């Protein structure tokens, strides 16, 4: 007997509920829409139609992955960020809603024809989101992971900014030629290596460790960037970091010690310190 879309959707929703997934219904629906290559309206229309074998197989494979704790975005291979969908791979973090704060902050201060440097770009979501708002702007994005850069390149092409975004392989400023940028922005690894045991299984199991952990209690990346930022930042340029929620004072002190005078801490919707904005 053929299995309908509605029947299999219910099957996986109940499986997810039994596993304690708090978004069981949404998860099941997202996976089915992706497996069937349908939108929500099409799925409603097809509710009681028999599910083709290839859709059933794809849906079941993804359902099993979700039961093992794999995040929806990892299974789908893409995630929405700042109103755009970005491809992901094993070498990139899943862009988080909290990170949209630093894009908001950047857009308020970035010149329409400015030059942007994104250090530790990952999927390229931050740099590409900014360039999409400013068609005359150009950017450079750096990552130490070749896999991440391949993903960023795909995203640049997907969103039509590949001719305005230069991708460089290396550690922080290492591959960047001497030049000045109107803004340097970074969401670096900022979790201390000693905090690894406190991380949830989802992050440890599916996120690239290189993008999560840093030496010196999570401050190593900030130290590396701040120590050389003045060489690459225009006189009236801005430096914007995402930070861990307990790092605001330490990163601020690091900036002050390196000649930055205008420093602001910004909170996310949960009230946690989430970003640092600084100007020379």
Provide a descriptive summary of the structure in words.
The protein is α/β, with parallel strands linked by helices and 280 residues long. The protein folds into two domains: 72 residues, Helicase, Ruva Protein, domain 3; 198 residues, Rossmann fold (3-Layer(aba) Sandwich), CATH 3.40.50.150. It contains twelve helices and eleven strands. A seven-stranded mixed sheet has the order 5-4-3-6-9-11-10, with helices on both faces. Strands 1-2 form a two-stranded antiparallel ribbon. It has a two-stranded parallel ribbon with strand order 7-8. Strand 4, helix 8 and strand 5 form a beta-alpha-beta unit. Helix 1 packs parallel to helix 4 and helix 2 packs antiparallel against helix 4. The radius of gyration is 21 Å and the shape is elongated. It starts with a helix and ends with a strand. The model has no long low-confidence stretch (mean pLDDT 94).
Overall tally of domains: 2
Question: What's the CATH superfamily of the largest domain, by name?
Answer: Vaccinia Virus protein VP39
Oligomer description: single chain
Beta-strand segment tally: 11
Please report the first level of CATH classification, the CATH class of the largest domain: Alpha Beta
**Classification by helices and strands:** alpha/beta
Helix content: 40-55%
Global outline: elongated
Q: Please compute the radius of gyration using only Cα atoms.
A: 21 Å
Number of helices: 12
Strand content: 15-25%
Q: Would you identify the regions where 5 or more consecutive residues have pLDDT less than 50?
A: none
The CATH architecture designation of the largest domain is: 3-Layer(aba) Sandwich
Q: Largest beta sheet: what is the strand line-up?
A: 5-4-3-6-9-11-10
Average pLDDT reading: 94
How far apart are the first and last residues' alpha carbons, in Å? 70 Å
State the order of secondary-structure elements, H for helix, E for strand.
HHHHHEEHEHEHEEEHEHHEHEE
